[in-house]
From TrEMBL:
PANTHER family xrefs: LARGE RIBOSOMAL SUBUNIT PROTEIN BL17M (PTHR14413:SF16), RIBOSOMAL PROTEIN L17 (PTHR14413)
A biological process from GO: translation
InterPro entries for this protein: Ribosomal_bL17, Ribosomal_bL17_CS, Ribosomal_bL17_sf
Gene from which the chain derives: rplQ
UniProt keyword terms in alphabetical order: Ribonucleoprotein, Ribosomal protein
Stated name of the protein: Large ribosomal subunit protein bL17
Statement: the UniProt record of this protein carries the keyword Transcription: no
SUPFAM superfamilies: Prokaryotic ribosomal protein L17
Length: 169
């Protein structure tokens, strides 16, 4: 029975699962955003968020603890450098999971997992003021096509009338 065993084994042995999560966490820290399945992303979130919390306190024991999980010296440098600086005031919730749809081969639900403070597109759009310009209304295609046809016919009929008037005077 599997009473009180809450984490997802992801169909892997313990050593394989730990190695996979360490590699995915290193990739997430280095690239700030990775594409994976939803199940792996949820497990990765549980794995990487305590490491990021540890990185807020830049001491030798916390660096050693992070290295024991990540097993990548460059990822530890990045974690204690740029990542810890950005998330220093955030109390938690360092990652975001954005679902992208289903994978073609096996129909697995896919997603992006990213570090929250590093997505410039979302932070720019949220902080940018809304444009105060003209409000556009929706117009149907038929109406715009009819007005174009009427506009084309009207100058054609007016032009000969104007040309005849000066000739008569």
């Amino acid at each position: 029975m599997r009473h009180n065993k809450k984490f997802n084994h992801l169909g892997r042995t313990k050593a394989h699962r730990e190695a996979m999560l360490a590699n995915m966490a290193s990739s997430l820290i280095m690239h700030k955003r990775i594409n994976t399945t939803v199940a792996k992303a949820k497990e990765l979130r549980k794995f990487v968020e305590p490491i990021i919390t540890t990185a807020k306190n830049d001491t030798t024991p916390s660096r050693r603890l992070a290295f024991s999980y990540l097993r990548d010296k460059e990822a530890v440098k990045e974690l204690f450098g740029t990542v810890a600086d950005k998330v220093g005031d955030r109390p938690g919730g360092y990652t975001r999971i954005l679902r992208t749809g289903l994978r073609l081969g096996d129909n697995a639900s896919m997603c992006f997992i990213e570090l929250v403070d590093f997505n410039d597109n979302i932070t720019k759009s949220a902080s940018a003021p809304k444009s105060e310009g003209k409000k556009r209304t929706r117009r149907s295609r038929r109406a715009s096509g009819a007005t174009k046809a009427a506009a084309q016919e009207a100058p054609a009929t007016e032009a000969p009338a104007q040309a005849e008037e000066p000739a008569q005077e």
